[in-house]
Amino acid sequence: MKKKYLLLAALVGMSAGAMAQKKGFSYKFYGQVRADLFYNTRTNSETVDGLFYMYPLDKLPDADGNDLNDQGNGNLYALYSRVGVDVAGPMLGKARTSAKVEVDFRGSGTSYSLFRLRHAYFNLDWGTSALLVGQTWHPLYGDVAPEILNLNMGAPFQPFSRAPQVRYRFTRKHFQLTASAIWQSQYLSVGPASDKAGEASTSKSQNFIKNSCVPEFYVGMDYRRPELIAGAGVHVSSIRPRTKSVVGSDTYKVDERVTGVSAEAHLKFTHERFLLSAKSVLGTNLTQTSTVGGYGITSVDPRTGEQTYTPLRTSATWLNVAYGKTWRPALFFGYLKSLGASTEVSDVLGTGTNLDQLLNATAELTYNRSNWKLGAEYSLCNAWYGDEFSAKAKALSSHTVMNHRVVMTAIYQF
Fold first, then answer.
1. Residue 109: what pLDDT?
2. Against a cut of 0.85, is the pTM above it?
3. Is the CB of residue 121 less than 8 Å from the CB of residue 185?
4. Source organism's superkingdom (predicted)?
């Protein structure tokens, strides 16, 4: 036992010595303890056991015709408490160096209360240009996101993802150009769960972009003033759903790819205590950004089972208004419409592919003091599910289901 204490003391001494040698570095530690209490009137599409809420699930009748998804649920969690450190380092030539590492306790899958990496990157800043390498917000999330208590931050209307990337920014007067190459880590594309030809079961996997050998790309331009951000961007992704196909007892190597081009426009205006922000996204196969969509099968080779695909298109728009300082009310509205495919498809793969449209309205009130935020939020989400679809996977008729959600949040920031 004495040896263990001596070893621990030696390690602490070595760490202290190493810290003392890090001349030119400064560190800013920060974090928050956050508790979220929520209640839903219906079963929903969600992750983290309901903390990350998306939209109400369709009716699921039992043997007597009763809707199994017409069931209330709720819980209290502190999983989104987090800690982080911002690092300012010495100059590298003419570049200012900095870094960030941030973690929370959200875990992944069904493993919660475990450390999860949120941000981890370094940044080189030459003044008019900057290069970031590491994991941070996906460019489609960007610098314009709604101010709400729900941890989904507006998803599925707002793209939500943190992703490994190489990002270059160039700033000239009031204009900022952003160009990024993006990979996937925790937020993944949806694709086939089986190599068997014609199967439409789905799963999330890193293999779809890893086997592609091509990252996602984003290019955008912003006009920036002290009170205003206005801009637009274009995003391209290309994944390989499968590298082999099983037909009967035979396995074949296949070369499959689905490529999607998306576009977005955003606006954020702040003046004293007033906030107005909005974003509109025309998306194709953006399942890796916590939204709905996917792609459809357009043809199948009868001998090898090799398939061709076309992406499904969605349109999503949200608006957020807030006013105040100590007492700060806010409103959020989101609308999403599934637009189907550009050509006929035999089957579809993705998330929410049976949705026709979504409508969300949220009202909240927060009380803000130094280091504290207390708030309550009510959200109404109406989902239209397709009853029949065209050959291009667009709903021809639909029915609705609705969920009422209440969230109460307490945050202590340090």
1. 62
2. yes
3. no
4. Bacteria
Report yes or no: 274 and 323 within 8 Å, Cβ to Cβ: yes
Token reading at 367: 């009380």
Q: What is the pLDDT of residues 389-399, one digit of tens each?
A: 999 999 999 99
CA distances from 203 to 27, 48, 215, 242, 331 (A): 40, 17, 20, 12, 34
Q: Write the CA distances from 349 to 189, 192, 199, 248, 297, integer angstroms.
A: 11, 7, 9, 22, 8
Report yes or no on 319 lying in a domain.
yes
More confident residue, 201 or 336: 336
* Greatest pairwise CA separation for the chain in angstroms: 75
User: Which pLDDT tens digit goes with each residue over 49-79?
Assistant: 788 999 999 999 999 999 999 999 999 999 8
For the cut 80, the answer to whether the pLDDT of residue 8 exceeds it is no
**Nearest 5 degrees, angle CA 377-CA 365-CA 78?**
55
Between strands 52-56 and 82-88, the pairing is: unpaired
Look up the domain containing 202 and give its range.
Answer: 125-413
pLDDT at 107: 77
CATH code assigned at 320: 2.40.160
CB-CB contact of 75 with 39 (8 Å): no
Task: Indicate whether 147 belongs to any domain.
Answer: yes
The answer to whether residue 385 sits within a structural domain is: yes
> Residue 313 CB: number of other CB atoms within 10 A?
22
Residue 208 lies in a domain: yes
Are β-strands 347-351 and 355-369 bridged in parallel, bridged antiparallel, or unpaired? unpaired
What's the pLDDT tens digit per position in 22-33?
A: 889 999 999 999
Helix-then-strand count for the chain, H and E: 2, 26
Identify the residue with better confidence: 106 or 334. 334
Number of domains in the chain: 1
Angle, vertex CA 140, rays to CA 139 and CA 141, nearest 5: 85
